[in-house]
Description:
The chain is of the alpha+beta class. Helix content is about 25%, strand content about 20%.
Amino acid sequence: MIQIYKDRxxxxxxxxxxxxxxxxxxxxxxxxxxTKKNFKYSKVFCEKHVxxxxxxxxxxxxxxxxxxxxxxxYDPNNFTCRKCNLTILNKTDKMRK
Length: 97
């Protein structure tokens, strides 16, 4: 199905929602429908991932919500939050000196 969206300037944008799948690894859902709020991300990500992706810190096991574009740059198995990252850094010998 080809979806047509007109932006506020009157330009038409078309893309094929039938054949595109979400860009998040492991998610095979179809891309979400275009809305004015999430037009930037709705062409690439499914409805579940448009607003954010949950990622878990490997040290403290706290769940964070990040932008879908940022999630693609992180390694989900090796993600540490800022707080845990600083405590790991402070435990090194160079930082103690």
